[in-house]
Write a structure and sequence with these properties.
Largest sheet: none
Helix content: 40-55%
Distance between the termini: 74 Å
Structural class: mainly alpha
Shape: flat
Number of strands: 0
């Protein structure tokens, strides 16, 4: 077999042989989902902000109880932790201070 005929060779079942009237319908492969890293800061911050805002949207229902106060404090602490992380990163990016080295204890 010559090199030219090897290059012209097509895989079997490509629809070029003319044996069937209509080519077989190609079944598309499902696209694999990307691996999502759930334990990252953006996911945490979106969770805390969504919970905090959702809780205060519940104020429209005028719930006034100890459970509401407790839930408010929990979401406020989560949101505050997120904001402290953002502000710390912002301060370090501006080089207003240096990151401290961890001490071996």
């Amino acid at each position: 077999m010559s090199a030219a005929s090897r290059r012209r060779r097509r895989p079997a079942g490509s629809g070029t042989t003319g044996g069937s009237a209509a080519p077989a319908a190609a079944v598309p492969k499902p696209i694999p989902l990307p691996e999502w890293k759930w334990r990252t800061f953006p996911v945490y911050f979106a969770f805390a902000l969504g919970g905090f805002l959702g809780l205060y949207m519940g104020l429209l229902a005028s719930v006034n109880s100890g459970a509401f106060l407790f839930a408010s404090v929990v979401w406020a602490v989560l949101l505050g932790a997120g904001f402290s992380r953002l502000s710390t990163r912002w301060i370090l990016s501006r080089r207003w201070t240096r990151a401290q080295q961890r001490r071996k204890g």
